[in-house]
């Protein structure tokens, strides 16, 4: 046989063999891979994926998709709806709540969801004697933070009935029960992975944890055995893209399907792109300057008021938010019940600020440090630029201001140890007044501000189901905060996200979380 014929024969064999492999598809099924992948780009990665200890914004997106709670929020408001619990009731004294559980749910590891799993999930966070209490490091127990002093016992009545007993009436209890910190974990998985559970999360949610390359992406797969409506997409990816311009470019070119943390300067471009839909909701959040009231001269309310009067907040908000946020009057967002519009704002008056400093004996050149974080968060897209604007305003009244730019994790450590003067900080969560006026303001923000008389007022508001009494007490708190100036209120940002216009079912909820449960691509 000639060399030419040998070559031709070999070429034909290679072609036939290659065609046969292509026709077989993966694992010889004869099917073409039609996996649907949905990718959302955001500015930060998660620190840990565990509802009991999730704290950073990057943690919450995956937690909402891997885990479920007994209750869930409706997407358009704060009303709660059934989830792992089908029904619930309150005792006559308002201190015992009974939850009736679904009997057809399994965790992603194949183990049964039941009352014992609910008890385990609460006790590992609340009970210091529990064998897995405190095993997870580097997180923060938001459940303990919200209700650790209120919940006295969680007990299984039978396989699918749970009772939660409270120390006293607690007005936001049923609302907080839909919060992610109350989501249920697999006891078997916690026992298996121990301190590494947040890197190997197992819940009952619509998506199953698959892979996590730190600093790059988190990949989840659809839960084929989900108790609710099964996701339409097969794979969900949370991609880390720190730069705002890069996130938008990747959305415009179709490299990702949706983005979070949109720079206000990009809103116009998004609105005028026929291939992109913009989602926005008023933000129940607060971006502020957190003041360490345990340090001189910041322990003096007069000095703190001077800081507030020195900053041209209207101009700052106009420049930074460009119509995507509103100036904060006090600690409570105007979208939240019991907001008091008379408790602020501090008028921009640099001459008054100078006079306050002079009258209190603070000389020109008094030094303070302003700490800022690096990357965008849902309530601010340009934190470093904000720090620069604030420094310029404070320098105009004679203060010597040094900016310290650090990563969010480092700033968290600084706050917890109170190793700061003024730190840019934000708060967003369940839009309930106690969450801002009690949980955030009184000690919880690591500022050291916790007057007992104000704690007592806040606790009275928590212990009554009478809304008129709650409103009266919460407005009293706002007036006291205005007088004492423990923070520098800056702004409330709108929550925003953008998605390719051919995508259906992408949702942005009232707390700024993106939900992909119903996405169709």
Automatic annotation (TrEMBL):
Keyword Magnesium set for record: no
Keyword hit for Signal: yes
Chief location category: membrane
Subcellular localization(s) per the UniProt record: Cell membrane
Annotated InterPro entries: Peptide/Ni-bd, SBP_5, SBP_5_CS, SBP_5_dom
Membrane topology, record value: Lipid-anchor
Signal peptide: 1-22
Stated family: Belongs to the bacterial solute-binding protein 5 family.
Protein name, entry field: Dipeptide ABC transporter, substrate-binding protein DppA
Organism whose genome encodes this protein: Candidatus Syntrophocurvum alkaliphilum
């Amino acid at each position: 046989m000639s060399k030419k014929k040998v070559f031709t024969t070999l070429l034909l064999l290679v072609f036939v063999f290659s065609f046969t492999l292509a026709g077989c598809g993966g694992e010889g099924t004869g099917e073409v891979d039609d996996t649907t992948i949905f990718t959302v780009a955001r500015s930060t990665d998660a620190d840990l994926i565990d509802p009991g200890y999730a704290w950073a914004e990057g943690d919450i997106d995956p937690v909402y998709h891997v885990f479920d709670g007994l209750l869930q929020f409706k997407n358009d408001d704060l009303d709660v709806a059934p989830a792992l619990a089908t029904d619930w009731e309150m005792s006559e004294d308002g201190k015992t709540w009974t939850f009736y559980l679904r009997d057809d749910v399994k965790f992603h590891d194949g183990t049964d969801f039941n009352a014992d799993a609910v008890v385990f999930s609460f006790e590992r966070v609340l009970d210091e004697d529990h064998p897995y209490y405190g095993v997870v490091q580097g997180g923060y127990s938001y459940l303990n933070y919200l209700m650790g002093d209120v919940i006295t016992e969680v007990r299984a009545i039978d396989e699918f009935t749970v009772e939660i007993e409270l120390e006293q009436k607690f007005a936001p209890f049923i609302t907080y029960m839909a919060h992610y910190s109350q989501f249920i974990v697999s006891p078997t998985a916690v026992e298996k992975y121990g301190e590494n559970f947040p890197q190997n999360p197992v819940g009952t949610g619509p998506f199953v944890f698959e892979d996590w390359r730190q600093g790059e992406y988190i990949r989840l797969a659809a839960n084929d055995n989900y108790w609710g409506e099964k996701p339409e997409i097969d794979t969900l990816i949370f991609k880390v893209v720190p730069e705002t311009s890069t996130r938008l470019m990747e959305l415009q070119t179709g490299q990702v399907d949706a983005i979070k943390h949109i720079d206000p300067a990009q809103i116009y471009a998004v609105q005028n792109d026929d291939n992109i839909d913009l989602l926005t909701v008023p933000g129940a959040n607060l971006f502020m300057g957190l003041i360490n009231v345990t340090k001189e001269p910041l322990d003096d309310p007069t000095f703190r008021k001077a800081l507030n009067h020195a900053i041209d907040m209207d101009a700052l908000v106009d420049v930074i938010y460009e119509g995507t946020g509103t100036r904060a009057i006090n600690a409570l967002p105007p979208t939240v019940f019991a907001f008091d519009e008379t408790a602020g704002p501090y008028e921009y008056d640099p001459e008054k600020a100078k006079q306050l400093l002079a009258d209190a004996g603070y000389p020109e050149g008094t030094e303070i440090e302003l700490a800022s974080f690096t990357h965008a968060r849902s309530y601010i897209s340009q934190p470093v630029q904000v720090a620069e604007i604030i420094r310029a305003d404070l320098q105009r009244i004679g203060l010597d201001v040094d900016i310290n730019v650090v990563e969010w994790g480092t700033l968290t450590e600084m706050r917890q140890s109170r190793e700061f003067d003024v730190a840019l900080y934000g708060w967003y969560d369940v839009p309930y007044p106690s969450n801002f006026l009690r949980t955030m303001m009184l000690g919880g923000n690591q500022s050291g501000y916790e007057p007992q008389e104000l704690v007592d007022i806040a606790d009275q508001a928590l212990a009554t189901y009478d809304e008129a009494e709650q409103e009266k007490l919460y407005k009293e708190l706002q007036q006291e905060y205005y007088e004492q100036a423990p923070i520098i209120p800056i702004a409330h940002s709108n929550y925003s996200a953008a998605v390719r216009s051919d995508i259906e079912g992408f949702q942005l909820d009232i707390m700024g979380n993106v939900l992909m449960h119903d996405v169709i691509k």
